[in-house]
Automatic annotation (TrEMBL), chain B:
Its main location: cytoplasm. The keyword Protein biosynthesis does not apply. One of its GO terms (cellular component) is cytoplasm. Keywords: Cytoplasm, Nucleus, Proteasome. The 20S proteasome core is composed of 28 subunits that are arranged in four stacked rings, resulting in a barrel-shaped structure. The two end rings are each formed by seven alpha subunits, and the two central rings are each formed by seven beta subunits. It comes from the Eukaryota. Belongs to the peptidase T1A family. CDD domains: proteasome_alpha_type_2. This is Proteasome subunit alpha type.
Length: 204, 235
């Protein structure tokens, strides 16, 4: 058993035309037992920046609390929100600090730069950054998710189309994975608003 | 630290509410060679006298202007060795920030961190305050900025300021000459004229140092030849 498969999770993020979407499944389980069906894995840093944390549940929560802490201090000092690219570097540095006793998490960072350009970045558990222009996946269903994202993704999708694409990709991808599922939450981020939608899929 | 006879803080309050060591540090600053800075609409200029103890000193190796990050530099008035410590710490702060965020540190943040270091040395055991005032010039997303940091650790943003021996006259001169819509080239000329006011002897590319940061956001110390050209324009 891998520690990354103890809780189970599925995260997908996609870039569109001046918008990004990030989504996660809602299952919280301990190996084969499902304990909750409302456990999001996507956390808001600020209105234009979200981070999804796949992997061990306790590490996801702890990391999201640490990043909120760091961003709150950043905001007080710099009197502005952090840019996604700077945040990605911060996440990477934080993870590498624990190089020889790491957090068992794989982050997916999705946001809009101040000029409106979409920003997507994935990382491994020790902070190796993988920027992307199209989509990024993480969790226990990555094999299926990668396949369907590759088929469904097109460049320059608008917010509504992007939502449909991300939703279809996540719901299909998590169907074949027993550890991820039980519904999904999807955030679509544009310059002036964020729309959060909860989806009902195969509840198994 | 507890055993040492000097473990108490040298900056203890006097009955009148002053920290005498800081006052003395400011005196050390005011004995140092004049430095000044002017913030223009599209950049900042720093200028300083290079007061050398003898004509035998190789002036090409003396550098009072220091780059801290590619878009921030600083100069000082007061004790040279003390300034070197602060330049070192400021450079490190810039790199630590870059490691965390992959972005250059904003000028205001760097100034705050350097000032915090200077303040620590007014409230710790066995140390003395720094005998320098710093003029920090930088260009970031908030535009061109000029900060002055004193031995006490207090700092202010200035449109134009002078520190060191001739600061009073220099500031009066700057108050008259400064205008809000000054551009970098005008600011350089004004800086040279201000230095000229209190200078004993002839200004040349060898006995003053000038540094600029324009909207290319690159801190650059001018070569003696460039300084000489500007001096000729000013004549």
């Amino acid at each position: 058993m891998s520690i990354f498969e103890y809780n189970g999770s599925a995260i997908v993020a996609m870039a569109g035309k001046e918008c990004v979407a990030i989504a996660s499944d809602l299952r919280f389980g301990v190996q084969l037992a499902t304990l909750a069906t409302d456990h999001k894995k996507v956390y808001k840093i600020h209105d234009q920046l979200f981070i999804g944390l796949a992997g061990l549940g306790t590490d996801s929560e702890t990391l999201s609390q640490r990043f909120t802490f760091k961003h709150n201090l950043y905001k007080l000092r710099e009197e502005r929100d952090i840019k996604p690219s700077a945040f990605a570097q911060l996440v990477s540095a934080t993870l590498y600090e624990r190089r020889f006793g790491p957090y068992f998490c794989q982050p997916v960072i999705a946001g809009l730069e101040p000029d409106g350009t979409p920003y997507l970045c994935g990382m491994d558990s020790i902070g190796a950054q993988e920027p992307a222009k199209d989509f990024m996946v993480a969790g226990t269903a990555t094999d299926s998710l990668l396949g369907i994202c590759e088929s469904l993704w097109r460049p320059d999708l608008g917010p509504e189309e992007l939502f449909e694409t991300v939703s279809q990709a996540l719901l299909s991808g998590q169907d074949r994975d027993c550890l991820a599922g039980w519904g999904a939450v999807v955030y679509v981020i544009t310059k002036d608003k964020v729309i959060a939608r909860t989806l009902r899929g195969r509840m198994d | 630290m507890g055993e040492s006879a000097y473990s108490f803080s040298l900056t203890t309050f006097s009955p009148s509410g002053k920290l005498v060591q800081i006052e003395y540090a400011l005196t050390a600053v005011n004995a140092g060679a004049t430095s000044l800075g002017i913030r223009a609409t599209n950049g900042v200029v720093l200028a300083t006298e290079k007061k050398l103890p003898s004509i035998l000193v190789d002036e090409t190796t003396v550098q009072k202007m220091s780059m801290v990050t590619p878009n921030v530099g600083m100069t000082y008035s007061g004790m040279g060795p003390d300034s070197r410590v602060l330049v070192r710490k400021a450079r490190k702060s810039g790199q630590v920030y870059f490691r965390q965020y992959h972005e250059q540190i904003p000028v205001a943040q760097l100034c705050r961190e350097t000032a915090a270091v200077m303040q620590e040395f007014t409230q710790s055991g066995g140390v003395r305050p720094f005998g320098v005032s710093l003029l920090m010039a930088g260009f970031d997303d908030n535009g061109p900025q000029l900060y002055q940091i004193d031995p006490s650790g207090s700092y202010f943003a200035w449109k134009a300021s002078a520190i060191g021996k001739n600061m009073v006259n220099a500031k009066t001169f700057l108050e008259k000459r400064y205008s809000e819509d000054m551009e970098l080239e005008d600011a350089i000329h004004t800086a040279l004229l201000t230095l000229k006011e209190g200078f004993e002897g002839e200004l040349s590319g060898e006995n003053i140092e000038v540094a600029v940061i324009g909207d290319d956001r690159k801190f650059r110390v001018l070569t003696p030849a460039e300084v000489q050209d500007y001096l000729q324009e000013v004549e």
